[in-house]
Amino acid sequence: MISDRVQGTRVIRTALPAEADLIADLHVRARSTYYPDGLPDDGIDWTAAWRGAIERPGGQVLCAVEQGRIVGIASFRTPDGAPADTVKLFQFHVDPGHWRSGIGTALHAACVEEWRAGGRRAAVLDVHVGNRRAQAFYDRQGWVPDPENPPAEGDHHLFLRYAVPPRE
User: Fold this and answer.
1) Could you tell me if 133 and 34 are in contact, meaning their C-beta atoms sit under 8 angstroms apart?
2) CB 3.0–4.6 Å: which of 68, 77, 108, 115 could bond 120 by disulfide?
3) Which of 137, 139, 144 has its CA nearest to residue 123?
4) Mean of the per-residue pLDDT values for the chain?
5) Strand 10-14 versus strand 59-66 pairing type
């Protein structure tokens, strides 16, 4: 488990089940920004989904907290059927009011630290094709198109891969 990483007034730590409502609200605010016609009603109870992610054995949810408020979240685990040294970043969101403030970079660095400590060598994710801001962020962090997972025609997601750097 991650020990709290303190950087000035920012702390990156493991999320708590009691925070699922706050995390779900941040998730919806962030996702809403890249759907031009508004966030589709997918019927998912996001509070329950986040609580499940937080409580799931083998999974991890990190949150970035500034001045007592959750401003970033990341959820990852080994996907079903994947090699043990591969991790999937299922969710990664920063509160839109805090974009370009270094929260995403710090949260990504904490994820990489956890992946490295867990012996992970590769990370994968999928990102919505309309989310150019997130695509640019992942590119700056070193993510590349996943050659094993090219997008199918009409797919709404791009698949990216990250080579987790070895321990120094």
Assistant:
1) yes
2) 115
3) 144
4) 90
5) antiparallel
